[in-house]
Amino acid sequence: MRNSLKSLVRFSHPRRRPSGERGQSLVEFAVMGVFLTVLLMGVADLGRAYFTYLALKDAAAEGAYFGAVYPACTSASDPECASPNNVEYRIKNSAPQGSLVDWSTVGIDLEAATLTPGDSLTVTVTYQYPLITPLVGTIVGSQNLTLRAESVAVIVSEAMP
Fold this sequence. Notes:
Elements: H1 2-8, H2 24-69, H3 87-92, E1 107-112, E2 120-130, H4 134-140, E3 144-154
Antiparallel strand pairs: 1-2, 2-3
């Protein structure tokens, strides 16, 4: 009976690998680890860029809505429109301190046909976003990504002379 049981159940011993396959898993892990790290950094970089775009979009909306109510106060050149009562100040100070945007380098463009109620005021905010991942910069073609946000509001009050 014992011999018949042994013939039915075969015990297998761990197979030994040929000496040329030693360390194969370590090499595969190293190659894939580098690839996955670069991929993860690229995703994080693009996530930061999207977060920055949202901050620009909010700033453009803040400027457009302020300019819709006070269309004469687009810059601080008028004494009645000193900071914080102008569109430029509202755009550059709409985000909390410590954001990813260097607000001193933001480009602001205001466009309105006339400053009469019913016309639209377009506020465009542009920013050169620096990428930190070299691979994403290679794909995009530059280490700086131009982000542009635009907001349109209808002017609701008269511009004061």
